[in-house]
Amino acid sequence: MPKTVIITGGCRGIGLAISMRFAKEGCQVIAIGRKSEAECASVLSQIRDLGLDPFYIQADVSASEDRKRAVDLTVSRFGRIDILVNNAGIAPKERASILEMTEESWDEVLDTNTKANMFMTQLVANAMIKQEVVGSRRGTIINVSSCSAEVSSPNRAQYCVSKAGISMLTKVYADALAPYGIIVNEIRPGVIRSDMTFTVEAKYNKLIAEGAFPIARWGEGEDVASAVFAFSSDDFLYTTGNYIDVDGGFHIKRL
């Protein structure tokens, strides 16, 4: 039986790369996204070309009823959830100083990035607790946060806070779920080429050229997908509540 993997935001950007990686490894991919299945047809066909049939669920993870429906559909169809990748996330629609940020922008970003992570994990964790141990563990949960969990950006403070919240959720859930044989870890991407970073491409090109990143290139979705897959493998059975920076060394403090 292939492992069943839920990937939120699984049909665009980093999420698509993660979906493709798990599909290539023979897993049953359950991709969740806001767009209709018809709008994701070309993306889903890429996975089908690998010989697997992805299961797509149109859902907004910031909505309680959508989260529950997605988990219930997955369990009823496939019987269990082996891996959850909390990848869905948004940036503020407009970058604004923390002195000018609106409550509406704060709520929108925190609801999608942090609240959705908290309660999607809660739903899946309770489903995992009820299922049998297969192989080395009962389940795996991987959170995709950001280097912004540690790096200050005063013109998008809500995004930074949302990602820092995910980092703490990783630790708390890892602590709570370890007795059940469920491992929880985090990936912190840096500057990754995607539609989210497209609008600030010139800024990051300049930073790369000036040497801000020891590995002087853009990160790709596949770089993140490789780290996510590694955390889901049996190579990390004695690690939980931890994280990997996938940022070209940007986290290194240098003189």
Task: Describe what this molecule looks like in 3D.
By secondary structure, the protein is α/β, with parallel strands linked by helices. The chain has one domain: Rossmann fold, CATH 3.40.50. It has seven helices and seven strands, in the order βαβαβαβαβαβααβ. The mean pLDDT is 95.
Write the layout of secondary structure elements.
Blueprint: E1 4-8, H1 13-24, E2 28-33, H2 41-48, E3 55-58, H3 64-78, E4 83-86, H4 103-130, E5 139-144, H5 157-177, E6 182-189, H6 201-209, H7 221-232, E7 243-246
Parallel strand pairs: 1-2, 1-4, 2-3, 4-5, 5-6, 6-7
Helix pairs in contact: 1-7, 3-4, 4-5
Quick structural overview:
By secondary structure, this protein is of the alpha/beta class.
> How far is it from the N-terminal to the C-terminal residue, by CA?
51 Å
Structural class: alpha/beta
Profile the largest sheet. 7 strands, parallel
Write down the CATH topology: Rossmann fold
Number of strands: 7
What do the pLDDT scores average to? 95
Quickly name the level 1 CATH class. Alpha Beta
Question: Which properties best describe this structure?
Answer:
255 residues, alpha/beta, Rossmann fold, seven-stranded parallel beta sheet, 7 helices, 15% strand
